[in-house]
Amino acid sequence: MTTIDYSVWDHIEVSDDEDETHPNIDTPSLFRWRHQARVERMEAFMKKGEELEKSLTESRRKLAEAQRRVQELVSASTPEAKADLAKAQEEEKQLKKQERSWEKKMQEHRIEEKKMPWNVDTLSKEGFSKSVVNVKPEKEEETEEEKEEKHKTFVEKYEKQIKHFGMLRRWDDSQKYLSDNPHLVCEETANYLVIMCIDLEVEEKHALMEQVAHQTIVMQFILELSKSLKVDPRGCFRQFFAKIKTADQQYQDAFNDELESFKERVRGRAKIRIEKALKEYEEEERQKRLGPGGLDPVEVYETLPPEMQKCFDDKDIQMLQDAITKMDPTEAKYHMKRCIDSGLWVPNAQADEEGDKDKEESDEPQYEEVKKEGLIAAGI
């Protein structure tokens, strides 16, 4: 039976058009970086090959020219020609050495080219007319309730360990801790770290937030790598650390760019949460202030004429009555109604107090003449 060599598939770069990425990763930017980095590597490699080819051709041209000169000098019999012959033969020897050197470099370049992983830009030939692949059936997508319950259970069990990982700084320490606690390499850890970052930013613990943000991106990059390789994240986190510790400048820049973008998103989320909390607090306070007519005394006070505002500032009833007398009756009625509805002015306060007192002394209802006096409410 013919054996098929599958080793050619061992080194294939993952396509840069994967669409499954973590929500906190800027997917388009990540894909563009992956493709751009690979294209730049390929272009640099091809340029190197062209330069080697050019150098080898030039070396051969110079060698052919030197060999021709040697042949010309050999046929000559003058003393000057014999002296030049020795010099030309030495030059020919050096050029042959250079040619062998360039040929060796060219051969090494071709070997390196064969070892390069295939990718979406180089896979262009059909290898099989038919393929039969055992595909692992996809799991049913979890509902939001199931995800929430799973996250809650995981956090209750491993919250202390997640926080410890979030405080680590060195690559080696992070790798060792995950090796000792591989169950932490999962979506639940990444999600908890995101929430932890926002909480720290809300509490204005900015330096601590940036530290945990770094570990959050570490976990998210590991999860991205596992999706690309289609393996369990617990089985590939060592590959991430091996790569990041020996990464070229482009990969390091990509990690740092994603980290900075994530921190900006955290600051934005924290700002929104603070603003929402302030609005809720202000609304609660406003509801507490509402008067019997449903109006806010602070808002009503700000719409009053200055002379009425002064009355409430000094809590002077007589001054208020004098101010109302001097005003247009319609305007005065409008403002006083709003004062009553907001609780700034409590009418017939004295009559109510006397009525309550008389009611305690007799079971018969007592009716008092409505008095003009009232009570100016405090607490504005």
From TrEMBL:
Purpose of the protein: Co-chaperone that binds to numerous kinases and promotes their interaction with the Hsp90 complex, resulting in stabilization and promotion of their activity.
Annotated region described as Disordered, given as residue ranges: 345-380
Keywords of this entry: Chaperone, Coiled coil, Cytoplasm
Coiled coil: 49-112
Protein known as: Hsp90 co-chaperone Cdc37
GO molecular function list: heat shock protein binding; protein kinase binding; protein-folding chaperone binding; unfolded protein binding
InterPro entries for the chain: Cdc37, Cdc37_C, Cdc37_Hsp90-bd, Cdc37_Hsp90-bd_sf, Cdc37_N_dom
Pfam families the record matches: CDC37_C, CDC37_M, CDC37_N
CC terms in the record's Gene Ontology section: cytoplasm
Domain Cdc37 Hsp90 binding: 124-285
Biased composition range(s): Acidic residues: 351-367
Claim: Chaperone is one of the keywords in the record: yes
Subcellular location: Cytoplasm
Chief localisation class: cytoplasm
Subunit structure of this chain's protein: Forms a complex with Hsp90.
Boundaries of every Cdc37 N-terminal domain copy: 3-131
Stated family: Belongs to the CDC37 family.
Ranges where the Cdc37 C-terminal domain occurs: 289-378
PANTHER family: CDC37-RELATED, HSP90 CO-CHAPERONE CDC37
